Amino acid sequence: MPFSFIEIEQKKSRLILFVFLFLIFFYFLTVWLLLLIVRNFFFASAFGNEFIFTFPPLSHTLIALAVAFLIGLLHWSVSTSNLIDKISASIDASPVDPKDNYHQYLKNIVDEVSIAIGGRHIEPYVIPTSALNAYSLVDFQDNAVIGVTEGLLARLNRSQIEAVVGHEAGHIVSGDSFNATVICSLSEIYKETVSRLGQGTREFRLRGKGGVLILLIFIVLTIMNFLNQLLNTFISRQREYRADAVSVRLTRNPLALAEALRLISQKWHGSGINGENIESIFIVSPNVRSIEEQEGLAADLFATHPPIDKRVNILLDMAHLDEKTLDENIKNMIRVSPIAKAEFKEGVSSDKKRWFVFKQDEWQGPFLLDELRVLKGFSPTDWIKIEGQDSVFEAFNDDEVNKVFGATIEDKEDSYPCPHCHTNLNELNYEGVPILKCDFCAGSFVDYSGISRIFIREDKEFSQEIVDLASSVYKTKLRYNSFSKPGTSDDWILDCPKCRKKMHRQFFVYSYPVEIDRCPSCSGIWFDKQELEVLQYLYQNKDKFLLQDKNSV
Amino acid sequence: MIIGLILLVVLVFIVGWVFMVYNSLIQLSVRVKNAWSQIDVQLKRRHDLIPNLVETVKGYMNYEKDTLERVIKARTQAIDASSIKDKAQAENFLTQTLRSLFAVVERYPDLKANQTMLKLQDELTSTENKIAFSRQYYNDEVMRFNTRIQVAPDNIVAKMFKFSTQDFFEIEDKAERQSPQVKF
Ligand SMILES: [Zn+2]
Ligand SMILES: [Zn+2]
């Protein structure tokens, strides 16, 4: 590691002191300005004196300083508690889902990188957006977080993600993340105050002197906000190069980081991230501003990140490669999906298993599990045997077959009944996301948080049937109904498998006329057979469909 | 009198300096120890995974008993090794035998599709990555420590308090990633 621990601690406390003084200085300036205004405009006219501009005496100034100190201290203590929660909430990030394959994959990568920096615990977070970006935070209790977007997990390959996580780890070990976190939290409070004050002015319609007062406070706050941004910026730009260097030291792979940066810069890195004023925690600024890609004093002052091209070139130098090779590498990039292994093979192997049933004095079959479900007169005490095996046993002894008989399970606490068939839904993963699926009607229930993940991930290969269905849904704009659903739009018929409350039948979105059932209390959605795939295909190919529309007109 | 005073000041200065160097050397050696314990955790993790792996593979492989026995033997050797050099050697051997085992697994499609096998393979890969990263970190720390105690003037203090150079945890692997020149 290029950093000595003591050095960082010193740097850290110096910066904290600096930010704290900064805070007090600006509160002091505000209070002092207020004092000036009150003195010259209110008192002067109240006593009807001739207008003379005077400065407040020293004693008042000292009181102003004391007040500023108190406000600053309060502000500081409020804004530095629960930092990680606050900032994560503002960008919609949450800890990884232990049942999600993609999230486990991220956890493994973060664990590996945390070992490479000496074993410091780092909590992985995910932002549910298709944008490509990553960020890191460290709070006063020394909790560290590295977060990446779903889009990044779905589009980059393992070594590229590792390089990005290495870059964020670089910010953590160098103390940058901590500084950025503190400054971001301060700016969050400014934003809040400014917007509240703006509201106040509008609501009370203050006129005359009161109005002038509010206006002046507003101006002071705006200036503070601007200076805060400046501070943010001043801290941020050079450190990106350093973090890139740490990433290369950890992963020994400058090319992967160059590839990752290039890919991130090609895609829009901001969509869905509410990153105003907290740009400095991200690997690439989430706000698209032309100034980010420029050089020179102005750009160095106001941009939070250096130009990506410059960063890429430095990395290419280390790898002794040129840009042409980089572009070619990206074009031929191999990405192994983290779920390719686990998910898709499972379906094949479990489908293969078949059973013989002893009925009317002879062995019948073999039957698949779904066929056993509808087999007339099949009971738990019937003798069965597994295809390819000799041992014979009663049906209730086979765990898989026994599930077939669990028809009415509504009373069980930990079971999830299918809204149509009332049999227990199976927990399985689709696109790495844990969902509940009915073996019988092929419908599935997806939690609210899982839906956006499924739409962002592109591992599923769609059958021709789904492609055709989706195209016809798109073309005809007709209501698609795969299952002969009882009832029509706006009905409340099916029960949510989790909450056991009625779900609301509605279009998924108006542009895709596929009807789904949404639970009003948990926001989970029930998709009937093929509906989820059709919607996913429509969403992931929306550009293609739009292009077709243009060409046909 | 004045000379005595000067000597005293010089003496205090030297003692202070020795104390400072000694302190920072201790800090560095603690870091080396911590780095080593990180490797140890990951190596243990790998040793713990192997019995499960052997159990899973056993049922499928009737003709490759040799490969399995070599893995088991390599694991025992790795657990028994005590010095860092021995450990590095034993772990090298274990990595090699595991690789040949996975090469054999490729020939059994049923085994390859087995859920437990897939999970184990994933975990072993991840553990191996972690071993590589912890080794990298350890070697970086050892390098820092060794340089410090060999370069003047700190080497005098190091000799006084009998600090000795630490062994690197080396793994002979042709696929090993080369450290690029980092300059900014
Ligand atoms: Zn069903
Ligand atoms: Zn619900």
Topology:
The complex is a heterodimer of chains A (553) and B (184).
Chain A lengths: L4 H42 L11 H22 L3 H8 L3 E2 L5 H16 L5 E6 L6 E5 L5 E6 H6 L2 H17 L1 H29 L3 H44 L2 H13 L30 H6 L5 H12 L3 H9 L10 H11 L2 E5 L2 E6 L1 H6 L8 E4 L6 E2 L4 H7 L20 E5 L2 E5 L6 E3 L1 H9 L7 H13 L27 E6 L2 E7 L6 E3 L3 H10 L1 H11 L1
Parallel strand pairs in A: 2-4
Antiparallel strand pairs in A: 1-2, 3-4, 5-6, 5-7, 7-8, 9-10, 10-11, 11-14, 12-13, 13-14
Helix pairs in contact in A: 1-2, 1-7, 1-8, 3-7, 4-6, 6-8, 6-9, 7-8, 9-11, 9-12, 17-18
Chain B lengths: L1 H57 L6 H16 L3 H22 L3 H5 L1 H36 L3 H7 L24
Helix pairs in contact in B: 1-2, 1-5, 2-3
Bound molecules: zinc ion (2 copies).
The site of one zinc ion (ZN) has 7 residues of chain A, from loops.
Protein described:
The complex is a heterodimer of chains A (553) and B (184). With 553 residues, chain A is an alpha+beta fold. Chain A folds into 4 domains: 5-79, no CATH class; 87-178 and 236-331, Zincin-like (2-Layer Sandwich); 344-406, no CATH class; 426-552, no CATH class. Helices cover 53% and strands 12% of the residues of chain A. Chain A has helices at 5-46, 58-79, 83-90, 101-116, 150-155, 158-174, 176-204, 208-251, 254-266, 297-302, 308-319, 323-331, 342-352, 369-374, 399-405, 448-456, 464-476, 531-540, 542-552; strands at 94-95, 122-127, 134-138, 144-149, 355-359, 362-367, 383-386, 393-394, 426-430, 433-437, 444-446, 504-509, 512-518, 525-527. The longest helix of chain A is centred in the middle third of the chain and has 44 residues, at 208-251. Chain B is rod-shaped, with a radius of gyration of 24 Å. Chain B is built from 6 helices and no strands. Chain B is 78% helix and 0% strand. Chain B has a domain at 31-136: LemA-like domain (de novo design (two linked rop proteins)).
